């Protein structure tokens, strides 16, 4: 197959490493010796670079990373078959740049290495750089998390960070009475916040919400928030780990009061998001940085049935409950069990999801 001249540009070498012959006007378009004849190039005045057609990147499973947190658990069963050997585990990172690919041709590589090698084939044309656009976590709060806030993109970049942090929380499980705090009560002033930090009464100024299994809460950057014990949370967020703490219940950890006051906003859009049924799935949230959907699947489901509106988007599939396998031409079938994550690259060809029984899956799709 020959590329049209409009798609090709000569720079003296073949970028793909493919040797080629460029025929003169009198030569037929047929197989040649495979050597580049620069004389023929000059005679034809053609600008050519041959490039290999992009090969679809196969889906893959990622290994989780377990992060120690003072407010976490020693035992993560039944969600993960893991016990802490030292400090409690509070967070499980599922799409960190350092998470390792477990399946397929890129097994053993960190996610950031796959991004460096394949770029748009993995992430699609919207995203640049070497970081995965979303960080997906599971949170296990046994105790209260700090009262904290995250900066938006503009403020984060003022301090040399690539991006801010907007996030959302989906309750995988919740005990009766579980609550989270999102924002302040109406009318709270910055002076009151400062005084409450000094008096250790900041909790009294927060707006608390009950949190039940299956609910989604949006937490945009600038929202002062806190998570109480009693829930297991699937968190989808911009890939940033920047957190400013206002109050930490006397724990000996650094506070960032001035940065927090600079980052926080008196009014935000944070709060519960009503689920919306759309075709074969439930849209849990659709915001500027991410879309999160829930599926209840049975039997064999094709990639076309799970397609997103833009085919050039990377997808993350998280298994809430059940067991499944991802299969397709050109890659080895791999399994997915509870709390495991599969990444479906933007350039991925057709594939099928084989469900052993009813399987609940949450899909995250990064947006611009």
Q: Outline of this structure?
A:
With 368 residues, the chain is mostly beta strands. It has helices spanning 38-44, 111-118, 120-123, 153-158, 190-199, 257-263; strands at residues 60-62, 65-73, 89-93, 134-139, 147-149, 167-174, 179-184, 206-210, 216-219, 225-227, 231-238, 244-247, 271-273, 276-278, 281-286, 290-297, 300-302, 315-321, 324-328, 331-336, 341-344, 352-355, 359-366. The protein is globular.
Helix content: 10-25%
String of helices and strands? HEEEHHEEHEEHEEEEEHEEEEEEEEEEE
* Overall pLDDT metric: 88
Q: What fraction of residues sit in β-strands?
A: 25-35%
Please state the second-level CATH architecture of the largest domain: Sandwich
Number of E-state strands? 23
Q: Could you say what the CATH topology of the largest domain is called?
A: Jelly Rolls
Given the C-alpha coordinates, what overall shape results? Answer: globular
CATH uppermost class of the largest domain: Mainly Beta
Q: Radius of gyration, rounded?
A: 25 Å
Distance between the termini: 35 Å
**CATH 4th-level superfamily of the largest domain:** Jelly Rolls
**Helix/strand class:** mainly beta
Multimeric status of the protein:
single chain
Strand order, sheet with most strands? 1-21-18-23-16-15-14
Q: How many H/I helical runs?
A: 6
The main pleated sheet reads as: 7 strands, antiparallel
Q: Which spans of ≥5 residues are poorly predicted at pLDDT below 50?
A: 1-53
Number of domains: 3
């Amino acid at each position: 197959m020959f590329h049209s001249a409009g798609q090709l540009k000569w720079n003296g070498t073949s970028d793909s490493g493919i040797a080629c012959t460029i025929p003169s006007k009198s030569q037929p378009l047929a197989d040649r010796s495979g050597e580049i004849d620069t004389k023929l190039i000059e005679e034809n005045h053609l600008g050519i670079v041959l490039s290999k057609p992009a090969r679809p990147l196969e889906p893959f499973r990622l290994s989780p990373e377990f992060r120690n947190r003072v407010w976490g658990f020693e035992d993560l069963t039944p969600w993960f078959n893991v016990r802490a050997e030292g400090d409690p585990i509070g967070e499980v990172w599922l799409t960190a740049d350092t998470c390792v690919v477990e399946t397929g041709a890129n097994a053993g590589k960190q996610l950031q290495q796959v991004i460096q090698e394949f770029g748009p084939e993995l992430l699609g044309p919207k995203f640049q750089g070497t970081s995965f656009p979303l960080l997906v976590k599971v949170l296990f709060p046994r105790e209260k998390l700090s009262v904290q806030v995250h900066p938006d993109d503009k403020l984060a970049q003022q301090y040399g960070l690539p991006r801010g942090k907007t996030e959302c929380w989906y309750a995988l499980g919740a005990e009766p009475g579980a609550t989270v705090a999102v924002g302040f009560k109406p009318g709270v002033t910055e002076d009151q916040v400062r005084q409450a930090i000094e008096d250790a009464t900041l909790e009294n100024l927060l707006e608390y919400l009950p949190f039940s299994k299956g609910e989604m809460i949006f937490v945009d950057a600038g929202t002062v928030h806190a998570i109480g014990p009693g829930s297991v949370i699937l968190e989808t967020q911009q890939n940033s780990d920047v957190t400013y703490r206002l109050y930490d219940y006397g724990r000996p950890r650094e506070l960032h009061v001035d940065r927090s006051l600079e980052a926080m906003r008196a009014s935000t859009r944070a709060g519960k998001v009503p689920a919306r049924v759309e075709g074969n799935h439930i849209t849990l949230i659709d915001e500027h940085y991410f879309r999160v959907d829930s599926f209840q699947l049975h039997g064999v489901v094709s990639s076309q049935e799970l397609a997103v509106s833009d085919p050039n988007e990377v997808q993350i599939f998280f298994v809430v409950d059940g067991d499944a396998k991802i299969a397709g031409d050109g890659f080895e079938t791999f399994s997915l069990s509870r709390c495991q994550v599969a990444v479906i690259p933007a350039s991925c060809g057709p594939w099928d999801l084989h469900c052993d029984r009813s399987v609940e899956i949450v899909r995250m799709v990064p947006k611009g």
